[in-house]
Design a protein that fits this description.
It is a single chain. With about 80 residues, this protein is an all-alpha fold. The chain is about 60% helix and about 0% strand. The radius of gyration is 20 Å and the shape is elongated.
Length: about 80
């Protein structure tokens, strides 16, 4: 047992309970996984068009996630 006592005012704020399980997080994550698959296949079989399609999917996925978060479908900033 620990003999250290922490005053209630010294405790950190309670974290959000969604753990990133939001529409914005899922959309971004699924898009980045698909992008990684395209990039991986494009590098494994030297097809540079697949690599650039994967990069484009990653950029669109990140932009979509940021937009959804700004619209309130993600974890709040504070």
């Amino acid at each position: 047992m620990s003999s250290i006592e922490i005053a209630p005012e010294d405790l950190p704020e309670v974290a959000h309970a969604n753990h990133g399980k939001t529409t914005a997080a899922w959309t971004t994550n699924i898009g980045l996984v698909i992008a990684a698959l395209f990039i991986g296949l494009g590098l494994a079989f030297p097809v540079w068009a697949l690599v650039w399609v994967g990069v484009a999917i990653a950029v669109v996925s990140l932009a979509t996630g940021a937009t959804l978060r700004a619209l309130g479908h993600g974890q709040p900033l504070s």
